[in-house]
Amino acid sequence: MAAVGPMAAMGPLPAMGTLPPLPTLGVPGVPELKPLTRYEAMRLGPGWSHSCHAMLYAPNPGMLFGRIPLRYAVLMQMRFDGLLGFPGGFVDRRYWSLEDGLNRVLGLGLGCVRLTEADYLCSHLTEGPHRVVAHFYARQLTLEELHTIEISAVHSRDHGMEVMGMVRVPLYTQKDRMGGLPNFLANSFVGTAKFQLLFALKILNMVPEEKLAEAVAATQRPKKSAIDHAGGAAGHHHKAGNELAKAGNELGERAEHPGMVHAGAEQQLVGLEGQALAEQLAGAELEQGADALVEHAVADVME
């Protein structure tokens, strides 16, 4: 497969001693992990575990609904535990190099891709009680190659067992400020996967940093769903029903005394029945409109 590794795309590294500061994510609302170089990671003692995961992606010229640029196709996995993550796993450094161990795990979950040191992107120390350094790789492919991997993954050994299926990450944000990437980020991710996704999107210039920050911020705002509006309409229906029942009781009481029954009461009852019916129809239209808005709304990309 023809591909350009992220390290090669960044050009040759400067001589030792003149390395620039390691990049950070810098997105509000996302806890920062401590970066370290590959050299530093390899010098860690035997008490450390090493995990290796890979992001496979391809430029995607497609347009959602004919108007929303897809930009890139980025692969992630739905895991056996219901969490989203990247293909990969733990590597036993006693027997495998980072890349050999990663390719062994990828073969179980994908079946037809091999990464090299040129695809290495970054390493971070993870949070928590366990001493784990997370290594991350990224490989750019063509859209056709990426699709081939998706098909191959269905026939891999781990499909339906440890891997429940491949998913593509939506990199756009719709006009409602939630559709697309914000809604995707609201899912549950395993370990460092969410951080690694945001970090790679920033470092590889796939999504501008300010757009990443906006997408993360959107997931932290409370959402008012269409069902709230439907609930408000139901409250009006209930109130109208109570008024109609009250009028009916009054009319019944007056019916016991024929001389007290008059056209005004009948008109009041008919008026209340018409009002309740009109509000019921309006409420039904509101509920249908809310459903249609949820199912069929097509919004512009947030510029």
**Biggest sheet details:** 8 strands, mixed
Instruction: Tell me the overall shape.
Output: globular
Could you name the ranges where pLDDT drops below 50 across 5 or more consecutive residues? 8-17, 258-270, 289-303
Question: How far apart, in Å, are the first and last alpha carbons?
Answer: 34 Å
Radius of gyration: 29 Å
Hey, roughly how much beta strand do the residues contain? 15-25%
Number of helices in the DSSP assignment: 9
- Tell me roughly what share of residues is in helical segments: 40-55%
Description:
The two termini are 34 Å apart. The C terminus is likely disordered. The longest helix is centred in the C-terminal third of the chain and has 34 residues. α8 packs antiparallel against α9. Strands 1, 2, 3, 4, 5, 6, 7 and 8 form an eight-stranded mixed sheet that branches. This protein is of the alpha+beta class and 303 residues long.
Any descriptors?
disordered C terminus; globular; alpha+beta; 303 residues; 8-stranded mixed beta sheet
Summarize the structure.
This protein is of the alpha+beta class and 303 residues long. It has helices at 6-9, 38-42, 98-109, 143-154, 181-185, 193-203, 209-219, 226-255, 263-296; strands spanning 34-36, 49-64, 68-79, 84-85, 88-91, 120-125, 132-140, 163-168. It is built from nine helices and eight strands.
Helix and strand layout, with pairings?
Blueprint (H helix, E strand, L loop, with lengths): L5 H4 L24 E3 L1 H5 L6 E16 L3 E12 L4 E2 L2 E4 L6 H12 L10 E6 L6 E9 L2 H12 L8 E6 L12 H5 L7 H11 L5 H11 L6 H30 L7 H34 L7
Parallel strand pairs: 2-7
Antiparallel strand pairs: 1-6, 2-3, 2-5, 3-4, 3-8, 6-7
Helix pairs in contact: 8-9
